[in-house]
Sequence to fold (260 residues):
Amino acid sequence: MNRRSVSPRDTAPQLRGLVFDVDGTLADTEEAHRQAFNTAFRAHGLSWDWDRDTYTRLLAVSGGKERLRHHIACSRDALGDLDAAALDASVNALHAAKTAAYERLVREGGLALRPGVPDLIEAAGSAGLALAIATTTTPANIDALLGGTLGSGWRSLFAAVEDASTAPLKKPHPQVYLQALAGLGLDAIECLAFEDSDNGLRAAQGAGIATIITPTAFTEGQDFSKAARVLPDLATLTLDELLCWHANAVRGSIGTHNNT
Ligand code: XBP
Ligand code: MG
Fold:
């Protein structure tokens, strides 16, 4: 029997899934989030006003509600003197107002997807890759953004959508990526992740997924040393390049594995 030696390349896992972060990756949304937070503060009679520098620092905390709690604690605001139930109620009310303001901004202002994102989603889907979303943002925000950019049928493009409602442990915890892999029914080595922040990179890495970073003005300068690639955007990225990068990343990990 002809026993052709099987090289690692023959049995190397293929690229079968792409997992996308939302805010900052699919679209440059954080300025809209920042404005929505400030609109909610005014509507609730609060003097808080998060400028870009402040918001850039606060983005180190994933999750809008967690970010509000962090701000209340760090600014020693009077809200911090409330009992747990009253503080919960205040944070939830503020965040609901912010989410409504963000939805209005997105639906009226028409945020576009970042360069290359629509083409990559289409090419990957046509090539039979499974797509997933792994975000710490609120489901309503995803629907407002992707409904306005990919159309009302956007959900059918993604085999799995994991968000703040399904993955309460926020990035850099890997929970949202682990759940996205489970939703895809794929192993980490069969996927690539797309992120914009070091929190997101650490979350995807925690789930074992090689990650491509496209920073924004809010995240440039963060530590992306463990990323598979750092690109200004996805405008010139081709599916063939992705397949080649993935094959190299897998060979590298197989090589590492064989040397251990
Ligand atoms: C980024 C976040 C979110 C948004 C605000 O999400 O951390 O909290 O800043 O949205 P992603 P919410 O993982 O997509 O980068 O107020 O709904 O949390
Ligand atoms: Mg992000």
Strands lie at 17-20, 130-134, 160-162, 191-195, 210-213, 229-230. The CA atoms of residues 120 and 238 lie 7 Å apart. The two ends are 31 Å apart (CA to CA).
